[in-house]
User: Fold these one by one.
Assistant:
Number 1:
Amino acid sequence: MNLINAGDTAWVLVSSALVLLMTPALAFFYGGMVRKKNVLSILMQCMIIVGLISVQWVLFGYSLSFHPGNGFWGGFGWFGLNGVGFDPYPDYAATIPHQAFMIFQAMFAIITPALILGAFAERMKFSAFLIFMLLWATLIYDPIAHWVWGVGGWLRTKGTLDFAGGTVVHISAGIAALATALMIGRRKNLDKGTPTPHNMPFVVLGTGLLWFGWFGFNAGSALAANGLAVNAFVVTNTAAAAAGLAWAVIEWMHNGKPTLFGFCSGAVAGLVAITPASGFVSVVPAIIIGILVSVFCFIAVALIKPKLRYDDSLDAFGVHCIGGIWGALATGLFASKIVNPTGADGLFFGNPAQFMTQLFAVGVTIAYSFVGTLILYKVVDMMVGVRASEEEENIGLDLSQHSERAYTVIE
Amino acid sequence: MKYIIAIIQPHKLEDVKEELYKAEVNLITVSEVLGHGRQKGVTEVYRGARETGNLLRKIRLEIAVNDNFLDATINAITKGARTGNVGDGKIFVMDMKDCVRIRTGEVGSIAIG
């Protein structure tokens, strides 16, 4: 008997490829924001994570996250994909080969640590970066993915709703971003003026490709080519659009002019916020989620960050953590069984308990990822030293860490 | 009237600007240049091919001043740009024959400030 559905499998494989593209997209999104002496370091950090986590994932990351182990993590039962074959594994996806689910999840495991690197851009040593990312993926991401999505995971058992990774991806990475920004300290010379993004068209290129890839991220998380995938697709696009518009309007009112950077920041914030909700809410809540995420993230990025003086250089915390928290809580407000009968109703549909469940999962994720990241940072700092030397930071990470430069002046 | 050209480290530009503003020298022209002094170039490697002794990125400042501003300007640049390491740069001072403000047609000392 073969339960595999060709349409579902095709959609999940295409979605996996879409989500993979998000990491190079993030590289351009972030890369455009830094000074030109550091753009290659951002691109390199993103690309090497594709290499590093792809291998980590098939060796033991997938097993730690998704093998039905204990409440904390999955253990090594599927080490090297032993036992992960081409028959469906119905607890996760009943109509596609188990390995299709595995490779789809691999792309999430890749982009999540990559999100963090915006916080410590332009000043981390590459060797420290590699060790930190491998440890973070293994000891922070894999357990949290197991708690929320894995069979036997304790937050999943409690009824937490996270369709495509609001807590697992964006909150866990976003709060880790704050932890690393606090630990590594501010970039040199920041008091004399914030560095100007060196290539705004790259930021737009990155935004466009992220938006495109996000359809795989959210609509692919239906794990089937069905109506639920369509719902996720539609609300994803709607929330991103509403949030981009909202950010531009906020800037227009607050600073006198709307900016391209603002629209792009808003669109990405909207994509973040709709992620956990995309399989549970309909289109009008998606607009509300999109508008409000821009309000919250704008306050965090433009008003609170300069006051508190932490150097979350590319706003990994301000967009991903704040947007992720709002999205996870909004899921508890707007979720509806009319959209997804296997989900739950939220506060506005008569079930306030769901909001508390969401709040609890948010709190647990923040606490675990924040404390865990602080510890990992300390460990890596003792091993090799995390921060690049002053001279390396002056020259730029492209030349000092990789012996390459992005642009020539002559020729 | 003097014409000053200074070559400095790129990351010291903000410091130099700050010192110049303190000295009330507000009119400067800045460009990005490549150069080679005593400081060794940085090695670049592309697919295993090493390129040593490459020219380094520097910033060139051009400032026209009246004679009574000369010392203050040189001090400001020196103070802002100095790290004590090889590669801090140089300041060149030249006599300037004339200066014309295009908007008004004013000529000489008065056209500088």
Number 2:
Amino acid sequence: MREHSGLSKTLAGVLVALYALIALIPLVWILLTGFKTPGDAISYPPTVFFEPSMEGYVNLFTSRSRQTPEYMASLPPPETWYERLVRSRNMVITGPSRFAERYMNSVIIGFGSTFLAVFLGTLAAYGFSRFKVPLKDDLLFFILSTRMMPPIAVAIPIFLMYRELGLSDTHLGMILLYTSVNISLAVWLLKGFIDEIPREYEEAAMVDGYTRIQAFLRVVLPQAKTGIAATAIFCLIFAWNEYAFALLLTSGNAQTAPPFIPIIIGEGGLDWPAVAAGTTLFLLPIVFFTIFLRQHLLRGITFGAVRK
Amino acid sequence: MKAFTTAVAAGVLAVAASAGTAQAQDKELTLCWAAWDPANALAELSKDFTAESGIEMNFEFVPWTNFADRMLNELNSGGKLCDLMIGDSQWIGGGATYGHYVRLNDFFDANDISMDDFLPATVYAYSTWPKGAPEYWALPAMGDALGWVYRKDWFARPELQEEFKSTYGYDLAPPENWNQLMDIGKFFQGREIDGKTVYGMAIYTERGSEGITMGATSALYPWGFEYQNPDKPYDMQGYVNSPAAVEALEFYKELYECCSPPGHSDSYMVANLDVYKSGQVAMQMNWFAFFPGIAKDEDVGGDKSGFFVNPSQKIAASTLGGQGISVVSYSDKQDMALEYIKWFANPEVQKKWWSLGGYSCHVAVLDDPNFASTAPFAADFLKAMSGVKDFWQEPTYAELLQSMQKRIHDYVVADQGTAQEALDKLVDDWTIVFEDDGKL
Amino acid sequence: MVAWIFILPTILLLLAINIFPLIWAIVLSFTNYRANQPGREVKWVGTRNYERLLSSEDIWGYLQATAHFVCWSMFFQVLLGFGLALLINRQFKGHATWTTLILLPMMLSPAVVGTFWTYIYQPQAGIFNYIINFFIDAGTFSMIGEVALAPWAIVMVDTWMWTPYVMLICLAGPRSIPDYLYEAAEVDRASKLRQFWSITLPMVLPFLMLAVLFRGIENFKMFDMVVELTSGGPGSTTELASINLKREAFEKWRTGYSSAFAILLFLTVFGLGNIYVKFLNKVKER
């Protein structure tokens, strides 16, 4: 890698920082809106400085109903800070909202399908990398081409099939579906990595008495760690955020958070602070996961992807 | 790392498998409706049912713009989410024809529930399929029509009264016809009131679900719009695209351009409420369902808001809203669901329903001589319901609606083509739908 | 035959959840089937669904809207993503942190992004118009409500969200360039511009084209972000192919017709993708 001069480095740094700052405005805006009151959120002109409130987060996790002042006066004093907050709006908490359930569904389906896609993808990538498979290139292209179907197009027959099989609105159905979407990417990325690992390693291990499976598990897998991590990030970003299938194929039981967050309504229109709060909480796991596996991300994408 | 992920994934899969088989409690019902003020009132009302019967009520309330989409998908996939469905009036054809709803005739007979106890217009619109036949698929639950709200306090200001009279030659008051409506809209558009720029009126322009169709038909109907030849069903040529219909649609577009707030291009009920409540417009069109909430509102309630029926033009007519309550045929708990309907049909419950802000369709409520004085909009509601007209209720209504949404939005908001072209294309679209459905 | 133990699970899953449905969709596309009318007699209608599609002016409009969206969003993302990658590659202090920050938008859920941008674009209370009006007096305007602006509004949001992705792939490119190439160029006194054209660009091009392939496919299929942002409006200005397909399939329930539409879209992506991959391989061989 060439060394660049100090000045050009500084200039590059300033430009990148400038872009990052502009690009972060909407994100910061989401974060801030989560701590506004519904009134502040729709005031004109937009307020940048405001008294922070937890109302958005409270609204996100509760359902509430408006009551008459007489009824409010008849209630015993609030026990918790969030009850006090809700009461100050002349409302009472009637129960938890569905957000926690939807979030849990996202965790189950997102991580479940990511694991399955990476697991099956690693196996298949190893198979393609190490064995003579008839029609190998055709099979690989076939696997890639499954990602070219628009989700809505796939959703039509899947809808019919799941209706017949009773898989509509189940966690299992969604895990299988997301796995099948992600698996093409997983196979392609991982094959590049495994191609990089010299065959000699396994062959030596097999000479030492390992079986093929043992050699795969103990020699190849540890070597492919970076690729697996990078693949997992991409699979998770897709499965975590997917909307179209979730919208069309799930309802009360297995619905994930993405179709839920855009329809959190308050009195009148969308409850923007609650939407923002939900967005923030929903982004966090991905950010942590990415930071956790960050070193692998860049290397991951540069390997598998470009090689044919 | 590997062992860790394996363990996590195994755990996740185990949870997934068990969650799939988890069963709901026995004495529990789920009612599905749109998320709006009346739904909260119904949840409140239903506490009495739970107290009487010991059956817990769950509610699945979906925002209006996603309601039809989401719930029809639920019905079409044979889902068991909803035991009771308060489905839109236009779904009744599909609900009956495709077997989503349970036929209620025998149940009504066995429990002495008479449809004569409900306003005939609501029975016709919310319960019957084929239209007008004594085949009932729902109990009228929520009467509704499109009406208007105006800023009574602004209209009452002497300086505005005077200026309006000198400009237009008549008094500033709730409009009697659409020309007056436009005059008032123009009068307020861009005016400074209390230091804020305000606009004429908030009308429906939403693209995704049914918004702009509901808005535009409230202009089309007073111009005498007909969906088909009264003597020859599904004969639409010359009716849907009649000169009067073209004129009405052109008028609606002009209204959008002259008198609505900037950027009001994809707005339905809640968007109209928002701009009205925040003091940006002098008038809004909206469903009667919201009027109790507006009358009680902290900012614009009380004496600040008044109500009027959809203005007439050639005839008096209003766009119908409202819903009946049906039992979903895929539900495992139909008996309990029927029990709920039986309870709901009770006149005393219906009276409480109206007092909580739900629009009862029961004659015990509506024929009460004091009814008109129970709320500032009660008299207007009765007036509106006497001249309501609904969109197609055909099983293929969603297709018919989507075509109309596109054609009207393309013309009114996106400014493409002429009103005549839009309606001509609409006739073509609808003809294909009816041909495919074997009705033509 | 050990190979099949490794490959078979994947192939079986794809057969069950991708290929079988695809074949089913092809079959359905020749019928008048409607998924919301299970009892109705299903009739073969030959190629009528395809004829209707190909003779429809409206479909052409949706495809044009899609093409506009794909082309322009690709253009801006390549421009910005590639530019950022080149700059970040200068390894200035703190570049790793800035890179991570830039990546954040692509980790959001597209549907939620669409929803939130309706808030950002609001003519009165939105921050976007506020910022624009801070710099120039643009008055009250609606990014998603005006026919002239809406197609650009969706391009802008997509660019904001996915430029990081293009950047990420492009970052790999300059790193694969051996230093001696530049050193040789310095000896030959080739100008910086010349070095860029003759060394940097050709080496990065395969990566860039790959990024375009991935994003191009995704944007051709675009549904979630745009449907939440504009729901296809105003009129049909931003009604992308997938949005219309959803209306046909899951709102109008014209299953047969929409299956034909789906197949047609798939073939379009598949065909364009194929040509593109061939072209990409040629570029790589150079």
